[in-house]
Amino acid sequence: MNPLRNAVNRTVLALTGAALLAGGGWLALTSDALAGRLPGWWPAPDAGTVLLDRGSLADLRTHGWWTPVVVAGTACALLLCLAWLLARFRGGGRRLPLAGPSLTLRSGALADAVARRAEATEGVDRAQVHLPAGKRRSRARVRVLLEPGAAPGPVLERLTRGPLDEARASLAPHPLSTRVRMGVRSTRERRAR
Amino acid sequence: MTGTPAVGGPARTAPAERGRTVVAERAVRRIAERAAAETDLAGRRARVTHGTATVHGRRTDVSVDVRLPYPAVLTEAGQRVRSRLSDRVAELSGLTVRAATVRVQSLSPDRAAPQQPPAHEDTPSGGRAARRPWSPRRIPAALVALVAVAACAALLYDVLSVHLADRRPAGARTGAVDWLATHGPGDPAVVAGGAVAAALGAWLLCLALTPGLRGVLPLSPVPGRPDQRAVLDRAAAAELVRDAASAVPGVTHVRVRCGRRRVRLRARLSFGDRPATRVALRTTAGATLTTLGLARHLKPRVTLRPTPHWRPPGTAPTTGRPPVPTPPPSGADGQDAGVRPAEGPVAEESDS
Q: Residues B62, B53: contact at Cβ < 8 Å?
């Protein structure tokens, strides 16, 4: 997948996870059973405090800027998260511009053609190709089911030098990267055939 | 083309110059479709599925949907179709082509199997081993974002409704504030909630730091194609080894478990010599693993157990009665001394 998106997803997960772990861990370690066992430098809360002090909350609310700040902050966070969610689900376009807007290619057509050529390759039983169009670079995901008795190494060679090279050549200046995943039908399916 | 009678003016113009020519859009469309279909693409033709044309005065915009033959450089073929289209339309209709658009809607692939170019020496990739693919973690990140969106939206709606529409704050918000104000650290509920949050946080951190995609093994890359990565399902690797092992004579009930570094093969021996069959199994498994083309070499570990009705080779076949230990003959023929017990010990071979 897109390495930038990969990194962003993992960063978000790591930050959220670390925050939850730190906060939750600190709260969990305040239990009475463990209170005596913590080392001296642990920032334990004083006995009798509450999680949210009503008095300080009321003080904050008297300030004039409290409500607008809360509203603005929540709205910003909402917009950020929404924009991020929508950006992931935008996906690839349907039409790949080959030479400006006056010449376009339907990416599903290329995917079908590559899949059919791949199925004609020796050793391949079924092939499915998913080719979302990208503005600067396209990533093709190819899923191949091997015929019984076919070895994956040679089949990958044949696929690469055959249909995948053709796909790369046909999109010529537009860069195309491919991710191939090979599998076999499960034994039950093979016996039933 | 329809003509209108000449407008009589003070200077009479020649008959050939009189009149107006209006070219119908339908005519331009037919011209465009025919022109695109006539394009010669290295001996093959494009097929036109649909065409449109709009005429504004002396200018026209045409667009065709075509079906190109497949293994071809699509940019070049498309440009050829487009240039022929605009040239022919301009030539035959006399209008100026303002915009000519070609949309490739489908491709017709060749029936023949793809040609394999001779495997010449590609630029070696320097022996770089394939890296393990990392899962993009889309779904967990999307879930976290969804929860954040829901919480922010609820809070924003509530705050706005309180301050703008003068409604009472939502029960959930006041209830939460009440609960937080009356419970402090050390409460069992708070401790439990903290433990749950910590577990969730640890799991998210795990997801973020581990590669994922545990069910696939990377294949070694094809030289000369740096932007291609291939993986093989672990279940598929196990199936292939299993098929090869089942073909060894005397072996039944093969079970294969494929890990990231080792392949564990468990089989039962129904006839034949045990050490020889174990060696044959190991050889076959090793050969199959080599043909898989994996990026990292897996070592096979073979475990072979005899089935209950296995007899060592060379003993007389039984007639169906349970085996009876016979006294050794005077000829000291060592064979009978080994009427082995039905279940031999499990031999854990550490093949290194």
A: yes
